Hints:
The protein has helices at residues 14-27, 42-48, 66-73, 89-97, 117-128, 149-158, 171-178, 190-222, and strands at 2-5, 32-36, 56-59, 78-82, 100-105, 133-141, 162-168.
Amino acid sequence: MIIAFLNQKGGVGKTTLAINVAARLAGLGHRVLLIDADKQASATTWASLRDDAPFQVVSMARPNMARDALKMAESYTHTIIDGPPHAEEIARSCIVASDFVVLPIEPSGLSTWASDLTVRQVREAQDLKPSLKCGFVVSRKIRKTVIGRDIRKMAGEAGIPILKSEIEQRVGFAESLTMGRTIYEWAGGKAAAAEISQLTDEIARHVEENIHGRAKTKATVKR
Ligand SMILES: Nc1ncnc2c1ncn2[C@@H]1O[C@H](COP(=O)(O)OP(=O)(O)OP(=O)(O)O)[C@@H](O)[C@H]1O
Ligand SMILES: [Mg+2]
């Protein structure tokens, strides 16, 4: 499966989630590729801090990267794409290459994300490729704040499902990445790691259901 973490907004946790979800999948024994589609190259820099990354990281921040990404992904069980902080051609390429687009959103502040360009780009892509799935994930949630019905209602209005898993604001996420580690390799990162595992498994379930659903539809059509 190919999963992209995308949001035109900066600092919402795309790179943090991409690296750690890749780590979870690698930890499960899968062959994982992480494509760094951001010119800032945060994921590539993270990988350069170590020589034993649990998954392959390649930098591929160009507008027409979809074809190359798909070709490379053939050699891996799972490919994760860390998207750029803008909604330009590269972001579009990331969407085109994906089975599932995860849109990390911060629950605080003025949440205009439902009408953001990234959401529009994903919806446009779904018109052409109905098998493309997506979901918002609440990222950097401040503990004890209420994310009530509002955020889920807004997500509903955007026509995009919101995943059950939520990622809290936890210092371990920032510290581990700064030191070139994954959250699974970070002492004191247990609760954070559990959130990542839950998120990864939820995404994987959605992708699998989607693939099986399509297979069933095909079988029905054949009959
Ligand atoms: N759940 C979290 N808890 C604590 N810190 C976090 C969390 N998620 C991200 N951060 C920190 O917030 C900053 C931005 O996160 P990150 O780089 O993952 O966002 P991004 O969406 O990839 O940003 P950009 O758009 O610039 O690529 C980083 O310093 C990171 O360590
Ligand atoms: Mg990033």
